[in-house]
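__Protein archive entry__

___
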Amino acid sequence: MALVFLIARAVQRFVRENLFLFVGAGAGVAFVERLGIRELLLFAAVVLAAVVVGAVIHHRRFRFRVEDDAVRVRRGVFEHKELRVRFSRVQNVQLGQPVYFRPFDLVQFSLETPGAAEREVELPGIPRRLAEEMRDRILGARREAVGEAGAEGPADPAVPPGFPGPVVPGGETAAASLLHAPGIARVFLHGLSSNQVWLIAGVLVYVLDLGVRQGADSTVVEQLLGWLERQATAGWSVLLLLAVGVFSVLLVAAGLAALLRYHPYRLQDHGSRLVGSGGVLERREQTLRRDKLTGAVLKQSPVGRVLGCWTLAGLQTRSDGRGDEVGQRSFLVPGLGAGDLDLVGKLYPGARMPEGFEPIHRRYRVWLLSRGFALALAILALLASSLGRGHGAVLLMTLSLVVLPPLVWLRWRQWGWSIDGPMFWLRRGLLGQRLEAFELARVQQVQVRSSPYQRRHGLVTLVLVLPQGLVQVPFLPEALAAQLANRALFAAETARQHRL
């Protein structure tokens, strides 16, 4: 059964990494028109055969072993690699169960360590009971390591020393408390406010365009194109209703996709660790250590602001430095409403929503507006000289000059920062918004940057280097930035001496 998972994952990765070849600039349509469907299917069969052979070799050479304090993995097709991950280094543990694993009670077991660019250990197709024992043993060993080293963090009462304690069906310990359980409506709204609708729309447009080009001689396509031309000649009301209907279908599809991925979602507190689980087609369970949590993010898309829907994510140490990523591998909590924002304090003890935010300097508007106008005018001049003044692209670019000032004002208005005890809050966005909270004691490095324009007006950009990436607060007065930098460095050094 692990072969099925390896083949499915390899095909998915191949499609994702090479999708731009087919979608970008109509290259896929031209490729299909030149070679034809039969040649394309033959190419797909060759790729699938190569994937199957690679998966078989990978499976035959894959071995893992659970030791007293570590997991050892040996793998590789052409080059043999051996990896040993100590339990005390584990950042989070994930269990996934696709549909085709359920009849056999198998799961995919994976774990990450701080700074890893990808999952370091991934074991597909192992028995659920073994995966649950490994998960609880790893977390228990982490608790013991913390206790022996005298590091900060309370002991986990749900995990006794040594091997795992009592486990109920589903892998949860009896001491767990429920923190968040969004219903079907909340998860559906999460899908409406996510980017899934635009992804589905892009794939649908590409497939329809390919079908029209390949079947242009068919009677059905000709009748459809003729009907659309007649409706456009008679008026745009029918086409507008059709567009609204198609967009509504896409929204429903995005909502259903969110239900398949998350429902029934449960966020549970196990003392020193958090467990999020859910999923219909693939049941997923993520276990995150509290002492590995480096920050929390509340994110709201433009559609989410209309629907009042938020997404909460727990940030961890990453090697890619992209701390603003809220992706599939992040510890996501979907379906939050306006009344659920206090969940940040439960996910990250000590964090609470500030009553207000301090703005950045208003000269940020002048700086951003001047850059935007310079770029727009350059593009406008280029389009007018090449396409003519009456072209539609020139009119759209002229309209952008009118829309630019209010957008710049909204961007400046969204920027804000606040300090609440040990926590630093940063707000930014445009039509949507993003709120990030982290402890000042987590700051690893402080940088103060300034452009010639900023130096002329006594302003700087404060850059805080955190385990999850960089956080920038632009256009602060120089004295204020120095005060914040000193406060962050003092908090970090005090925390370090306390740990020592």
Summary: The two ends are 48 Å apart (CA to CA). The chain has five domains: 2-60, 63-183+264-292, 186-260, 295-360+415-499, 363-412. Confidence is low (pLDDT under 50) at residues 142-174, 321-328. Residues 295-360+415-499 form one domain.
